[in-house]
């Protein structure tokens, strides 16, 4: 029987997040600086052939679910071709996409026809002017068109990613919760994480997600835990009484979800990251074409995967057992 990707803590890994580019058409304040980012030359990025070969090997080790990320994955040409190729690999059952939505509406039908099953769209504000500030130039109308397009082509569920930031968009919690009453979306509030931040500036914007439940209670909206929403995410899911949609809380800092982690990450330049937060990486490129060696590399990555990422220690100003990554979120793929 083929070995499965199980780490030393007994966590079974059946989910791979694949960053296909570190480039993005936006410059969201929590993801990358406004200027000065150095992007990988195109020849340093994994080709579609290399990605497909890597996934083929991992499918033989039990990987069933994939998510394409970036940067912004839709800035890379012919993404639908990659979706189709990955979907044709025996064992792959689910292919999702995380996108800022700007280019999605024009590509929705082709991506769906190629085999895309689910979508997460970043939407950190419902206010046009504030959205433009957070994204440093984004047009919210194109994101709303992306949500409509996702409905039109039958993607389900549709998840909206909201990075909650104190003093920036926390006064919109009520608005996002209200959205779930009439719209069949899953709003996912995400804690601001210290990924790629060399200073403590992020702490000033950090807000624990208990705030969301407090806002629901203050409005008289009864929130019940709603069990699992289809997908690979670590969110705690809720539904307001009478609502069509729901919301989830993803709080890696205040209440980390590492004990149930089932995911590995492959960066656009070909590095396996066993943990989002730590600096450990293993480059796959020279092993592609040797199935046994490539599989062994993933097992070696799992062997050093820590029990948890210790982000809470950062918030508390305590020491950590590993070295945090210096990569920005756009360079990792989330």
Automatic annotation (TrEMBL):
What the entry lists under Pfam families is as follows: Mob_synth_C (PF06463), Radical_SAM (PF04055)
- The positions annotated for binding [4Fe-4S] cluster 1 are 24, 28, 31
Q: In which pathway does it act?
A: Cofactor biosynthesis; molybdopterin biosynthesis
Q: Which reaction does it catalyse?
A: GTP + AH2 + S-adenosyl-L-methionine = (8S)-3',8-cyclo-7,8-dihydroguanosine 5'-triphosphate + 5'-deoxyadenosine + L-methionine + A + H(+)
Positions annotated to bind [4Fe-4S] cluster 2 = 258, 261, 275
What Gene Ontology terms describe what this protein does at the molecular function level?
Answer: GTP 3',8'-cyclase activity
Keywords linked to the UniProt accession: 4Fe-4S, GTP-binding, Iron, Iron-sulfur, Lyase, Metal-binding, Molybdenum cofactor biosynthesis, Nucleotide-binding, S-adenosyl-L-methionine
Per UniProt, the cofactor note for this protein states:
Binds 2 [4Fe-4S] clusters. Binds 1 [4Fe-4S] cluster coordinated with 3 cysteines and an exchangeable S-adenosyl-L-methionine and 1 [4Fe-4S] cluster coordinated with 3 cysteines and the GTP-derived substrate.
Quote the InterPro entries the UniProt record gives: Aldolase_TIM, Elp3/MiaA/NifB-like_rSAM, MoaA, MoaA-like, MoaA_NifB_PqqE_Fe-S-bd_CS, MoaA_twitch, MoCo_biosynth_MoaA/MoaC, rSAM
- Radical SAM core domain ranges (all copies): 8-223
- Class in the EC hierarchy, top level: lyase
Chain positions recorded as S-adenosyl-L-methionine binding sites: 30, 71, 122, 193
Is the Isomerase keyword given for this protein? no
What Enzyme Commission number(s) does the record list for this chain?
Answer: 4.1.99.22
What cofactor(s) does the depicted protein rely on?
[4Fe-4S] cluster
PROSITE patterns in alphabetical order = MOAA_NIFB_PQQE, RADICAL_SAM
What residues does GTP bind to?
Answer: 17, 67, 98, 159, 263-265
Tree of life domain: Bacteria
Return the similarity comment: Belongs to the radical SAM superfamily. MoaA family.
**What is known about its subunit structure?**
Monomer and homodimer.
Question: HAMAP family in the record, alphabetically?
Answer: MoaA_B
- According to its UniProt entry, what is the function of this protein? Catalyzes the cyclization of GTP to (8S)-3',8-cyclo-7,8-dihydroguanosine 5'-triphosphate.
Name this protein carries in UniProt: GTP 3',8-cyclase
**Which organism does this sequence originate in?**
Paenibacillus chartarius
